[in-house]
Amino acid sequence: MSEDAGGADPSGEIREDGGMHGAGRAGGPAPTSDPRLRTEDTPLIRTDFTDDAAWELVERAVGAPYGQDGFCAYVESVVDRAFDGYTAEQLLPLLPVDIHAIAFVIDRATLACAENPVLVVKLGDPDDGRGQSFRALPYTLHSIENNLSIVNMDWEEFADSVDADGVFREDWS
């Protein structure tokens, strides 16, 4: 389990709702995220286990360097059959509010489509659009992850640039 900057109970006990027991930040609420989703890098969450070869292909494409400068998305794969079939709505309460700007979800729709559009889910404050999502092709995720993680660009710049089918296809590296 990653160390929790919020001061979670060192026992790491998980509550029935998936959250962790602990005091939380001083004066703030206790963390409620699932420790499996508290990753060092942006989580790349597998929620479909029907095709291992397709998963491996997409996982490699997401982590591959792109562009003239070889930029890559800094992701940490979360492969746990407990999340099989989960939707973004089911994952959202389990994802931390305070670590990453986004999470990537490789779900059934990702693996069923030849372009493999990965679901990009906005994290952070619920009052600032937490849970909004769009899909993006694997070769664009480095641009999204790199720019949002350093606050070089805003969520809206990517979300407003999706094609008519809701997929972001531009490589802005």
Our count of domains comes out at 2
The CATH superfamily of the largest domain bears the name Anticodon-binding domain
| Spatial arrangement of strands, main beta sheet | 2-1-3-4-5-6
What order do the SSEs take from the amino end to the carboxyl end, as H and E? EHEHEHEEHHE
Q: Which word captures the global form?
A: globular
Helix content: 10-25%
Strand elements, count: 6
Largest sheet: 6 strands, mixed
Tell me which CATH architecture of the largest domain applies here: 3-Layer(aba) Sandwich
The CATH class name of the largest domain reads Alpha Beta
Briefly, what is this?
Helices cover 20% and strands 14% of the residues.
Kindly describe this structure.
The protein has 173 residues and is an alpha/beta fold. It folds into two domains: 1-32, no CATH class; 35-168, Anticodon-binding domain (Rossmann fold, 3-Layer(aba) Sandwich). It contains five helices and six strands; from the N terminus they run E-H-E-H-E-H-E-E-H-H-E. The chain has a six-stranded mixed beta sheet with strand order 2-1-3-4-5-6. The longest helix is centred in the N-terminal third of the chain and has 12 residues, at 52-63. Residues 1-31 have low confidence and may be disordered.
Write the layout of secondary structure elements.
Layout: E1 42-46, H1 52-63, E2 75-78, H2 88-91, E3 102-106, H3 108-112, E4 118-122, E5 133-136, H4 141-149, H5 155-159, E6 167-168
Parallel strand pairs: 1-2, 1-3, 5-6
Antiparallel strand pairs: 3-4, 4-5
Descriptive tags:
alpha/beta, Rossmann fold, single chain, 6 strands, 2 domains, 173 residues, six-stranded mixed beta sheet, disordered N terminus
